[in-house]
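## retry 2 of 3
previous attempt timed out at serialization; input unchanged, resubmitting
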Amino acid sequence: MDSAGLFPRPDYQTGLAGPFTGRGVPDVAADADPSTALAAVVVLNGRPVLMSGGGTSAGAPLWAGVAALADQEAGRPLGPLNPALYRIGRGPQRLRAFHDVTVGNNTVVFPPKTVSGYSAQPGWDPVTGWGSPDVAVLVPLLVHGG
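## retry succeeded, writing output
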């Protein structure tokens, strides 16, 4: 997505491919497929229930957890992770740290109207960013460099 009218492209996004000039989004993703989605524990009527979750409602807390784990392992707040995520995404550990989504798109169909989106591709793309995390690999790279 092109946010050129709102936000300029940050330095850590220099060189990204895409039909935009401003801040490219998203940076990263999480599994949103209901058949493979994230496991989530919700409390219903005072009882914990295991359910599947996806989309932003599951992805935002997942990434907050990744940041918290990285801060904990570092023993200090790491601050904004975006520059490190892009350094890792451009580096040799990318395919270990991220599950790169290379198929699909974010086109939206509201009959009779279709809003064309972007297609996923290898590496960063405006559909899933760098992809979803392999937390066991990503957290040490965030803390120790990658």
